[in-house]
Structures are given as C-alpha cells and as structure tokens.
Amino acid sequence: MDRNRVYIFDTTLRDGEQVPGCQLNTIEKIHIARGLERLGVDVIEAGFPISSPGDFNSVIEISKAVSEPVVCALSRAVQKDIDMAAEALKFAKRPRIHTGIGTSDSHIKYKFNSTREEIIERAVAAVKYARNLVEEVEFYAEDAGRTDNEYLAKVVQAVVKAGARVINIPDTTGYCLPEEYGAKIKYLMEHVDGIEDVIISTHCHNDLGMATANTMSGLLNGARQVECTINGVGERAGNTSLEEIAMILQCHKDIDLHTGINSRDIYSMSRNVSSLMHMPVQPNKAVVGKNAFAHSSGIHQDGVLKNMSTYEIIDPKDVGIDENSIVLTARSGRAALRHRMELLGITVEDDKIDSIYQDFLRMADQKKEIVDEDLLVLAGQGNLQKAVKLDYLQVISGVGVRHVASIGLDVKGEKFEAAATGNGPVDAAINASNQIIKEKVTITELTIQNISLGSSDGCRVHMQVEHDGHYYYGFGTNTDIVASSLEAYISCLNKFIR
Ligand code: KIV
Ligand code: ZN
Q1: Of 42, 61, 188, 349, which sees the most CB atoms within 10 A?
Q2: Which-ligand-closest: CA of 238?
C-alpha cells in the first residue's frame, strides 16, 4: 500500500443529497457519478438503498454507469439493510458496503437504549454479515467525534478483527476541534492491533466551520481516506469539501500526501452539482467560489499582473477555470455554445442542440452576457415530463395600481386561462394559477436570488409548498422575477400533479 496516497470517498450522492430541496433524480445522479469518475474519485457513495426505492434504484444504475471507482452503499447495522445494500450493488464492478452504528454514550443511551458491550456485538455481527456478501466492508462509528477514545478503540479493534477493511470515524455533529480529532485518529493508530492493514477514514461535518481543518488533522495523524462532497454540500452546514482537500494536498507539497483527483475537472463538477442540486455556491467559497480568484483591490491587481504568485496560491487553470472562455453573447454560434457546455461536463445530443440554442438566444437577448450558471440552467430545462406547463404570463404592477396577473397554463395537454389580483405581482400570478389547478397549496418558503451579475441578470427562485400534508420543493429561473417565481411554483405543482 502506498502510505502517502489519500483515497477520496465522495458522498455527494448520499450525505450531500440528504439536504432538503437538493434531491436528484436517477438520471441526474448518473450524470454526477460519471463526472465523479472523470474527476478521479476512488469511491462513490451512491445511496442508502433501504431508505427508499429511489435510492435503491440509483445505486443499481450508478453501479452500471461507472467502472473505475468503488461503488458504496450505506446501511445501518441491521441485516435487512445490509441485504438491500448488497442487492443494490449487484452490478458494481467493485462493491463496498458501508455499515455501522452509533458509538457515543448519547447514541447508545438515547438512540439504542443499549449498552457499550451490546453495541460492539451488533457492530461485529453487521461487519461479519456484510463480509459474507461482499469483499469490501467499511464500518462507521457514528458520532465517533463525541465517543470516548478508549471505548472507540475497542469498537474499532473488534470490527477490524471481524473483517472491516476501512474504518470511518465520523465527527457526525461537527463538534470536534482539529487537535482533538487528530488526537483521536492518532490514538486509534497507536492502540488498535492490525490498524496498519486497514484504512482509517475521516468524515467531518461543518457545523462549526471546522470540517476541512479536522479532515486535515486526521490525515496528518494517519487517516488515508477522506469522505467529502462537492462544494461541501451535506446535512446542516455540510460535509468536508472535496475541492478544498484536493487543492490543499496539491498546493502543500511539504505534506507529501497525494490524491488521484484531476484538479482541472473541479470547477465544472462544482458548477454541475450546484446547478443540479439548486444549491448556489457562496461567492467567497474557497477554490470554487465566484470570487475565489477575483482580485478587486488595486494593490492585488497590480501584483497579480506583474506575477501571479504574489497573491494567488492556485493557478485558476489548475481547477479548470479558463477565464477566456467563460462569457458567451447573442453573437456566439452553436459550436461555441456546445464547446462551452462540454467544458462544463454537459453532453449535448445532436437532436437537442437546436432547441437549446434557441433558448440560449432568447436568454442572450435578455442578458448581456451568458455565464456558466446560465448554461447549466439551459441544459437542465426540458428534462422532465411536466404535467403543468406555463403558456404565457402577463402582469400589471407598479405603484398606485392594482397588481393583476393573467396566465395561460397547459395542464396535461388541456389549455386554461385565468386572471387574478394579489398584494404584489407574484401573489397575483400564484392566485391566477390556483384558480386553474383548484388544489389547496400553501407556500411555506420562497427565496429569490440573482444568479451572478446585476439587474440584467437572471434570478433563481427556490420555493417550498405544502400540499395534503406533504412538502414539495421547486425552482425557477428567468430574467423576470415574477416569471421565475411562477416557474418555481409550477415546478412544485409538477411534483404531485401527474
Ligand atoms: O455523519 C455521519 O455520521 C454519517 C454516517 C452515517 C457515516 O454520515
Ligand atoms: Zn455524515
């Protein structure tokens, strides 16, 4: 084993996808999995098969779609979970079952109403059971971050003996300090017999903003697998960012650890995940944020122009940002559009290019410049078979007038029209659509953001609605705020009107 090789375990499609509103369909997951394979990740955690038929199916399809990375499925330390995981992995060239149980006193007492001894027995039984079904078994000690080290070493010792090849030490709550997390890994390295024959994995959450620091501390103390997600997406404040760890190791040659990541694919992967998950990347996000390489102070600009190394530690090209090719305008042709989309990892089928190009021209007429985010929005349009489609929208709004919206909807092929007033143009448009669909729907969340530039820019609307006791998420993008809100509403409707 190359002791300086760090294995990248990507959990964007499992821990990352648990974020409310970020759910992906199987086609989108396959698209991301293929991108992860190109990026060079070692392991793709494809889902939690027992959790839903959708997850089960995604693990099957991802197993068929990729050949290089190990495909991993999550399970609890429960036989039926492990059976489902093994079944979902049956097409994987290199399957791995990731099973585990909570080990902190709080989990043992409140979650399992159990004892430390019984937890070890359940952990060992799960690993042995999984080893009968697949060669590679990874064990996670949930809430290891708050588990007492001496007891954690006993658990790890037992599961290593039972046949686990990789031992995951999650800081589930994101509570640990870097020194503390590093010391935990060091303790295991020093107190578990046979630890040199297995791989210790970090799995850090970012609740206190320390996920990357904790992961690095784990690596510096002997861990050799990193569980992470693109853009750091994940439950609550997210998981460790893949791109941050990959670039830390690439920049810090002094650490002498390396990954198999093709760093030039990082930017396109980041934009793809952001677009498909409808999760904007914060502008000042390390490595992939819009401002990560933007120098606005005169002193910085002067220095960078004289020599890039004065203020930049990463060459933007190393993460796949090629400044010359970012902007497209209404004068760009089909070839330029297709080329730019391919750089973003989007394959454009020959029979789709004309309609995408027409949408592109319409958008380019409304906006001065088309940036990557816009292209990803264009690429995502028309993916779904929709029961409800917007035919037209007209609004009257302003100060001192009544806000009125007239809309035309196509519902399962039938045309409807309605007009309504509201306390603003968005409200009027929603009221008009409610007259047509005649369902009781309550908007429980509505966020409007602009995509990248100023007032000529497109805006993205995220919406959550409640219908019949269930919550649905929808998204809309348009240069018109009312239109994007209505699109978001219609995309919510399409989740339950079939
Ligand atoms: O954060 C965590 O503990 C997890 C485990 C299920 C691996 O995601
Ligand atoms: Zn997690």
Answers
A1: 188
A2: 2
- Where in the chain are the domains? 7-277, 294-378, 388-496
Tell whether the model's pLDDT for residue 229 goes beyond 50: yes
Q: Are the beta carbons of 147 and 167 closer than 8 angstroms? A: no
The ligand minimizing its distance to the Cα of 172 is: 1
Give the angle 488-493-494 at the CA atoms, nearest 5°. 95
Q: Give the integer Cα–Cα distance in Å for 92 and 70.
A: 8
Out of 142, 147, 239, mutate this one to test ligand 1's pocket (max ligand atoms within 8 Å of CB): namely: 142
For the cut 80, the answer to whether the pLDDT of residue 373 exceeds it is: no
CB neighbours of 25 closer than 8 A, spacing ≥ 6?
A: 54, 384
Yes or no: say if 130 and 75 are a contact pair by the CB < 8 Å rule: yes
Query: Does the C-beta of 15 come closer than 6 Å to ligand 1?
Result: yes
Give distance in angstroms: CA of 77 to centre of ligand 1.
13
Point out the least confidently predicted range of 72-76, 243-247, 337-341. Answer: 337-341
Which residue's CA is the closest to the ligand 1 atom numbered 5? 142
Q: Which CATH entry fits the domain spanning 7-277: 3.20.20.70, 3.30.450.20, 1.20.1250.20, 3.40.50.150?
A: 3.20.20.70
Write the residue with the smallest CA distance to atom 7 of ligand 1.
140
- For ligand 1, atom 1, the nearest C-alpha belongs to 172
Strand order in 459-467's β-sheet? Answer: 442-450, 459-467, 470-478
| Weakest-pLDDT range from 228-237, 323-332, 469-478 | 323-332
Considering only CA atoms, which residue is closest to atom 6 of ligand 1?
Answer: 142
How many residues does this entry show for the chain? 498
Can you tell me the distance from the alpha carbon of 215 to that of 239, in angstroms, rounded to the nearest whole number? 10
pLDDT at 337: 85
- Looking at domain 388-496, which of 3.30.9.10, 3.40.50.261, 3.40.190.10, 3.30.160.270 is its CATH number? 3.30.160.270
pLDDT in tens, 313-325: 888 899 988 754 4
Q: Provide the token pair at 257.
A: 């650890």
Please tell me what DSSP assigns to residue 117.
Answer: H
Helix ranges (DSSP H) in 66-115: 79-88, 105-106
CA-wise closest residue to 290 among 100, 457, 160: 457
Ligand 2 centre distance from Cα of residue 141 (Å): 11
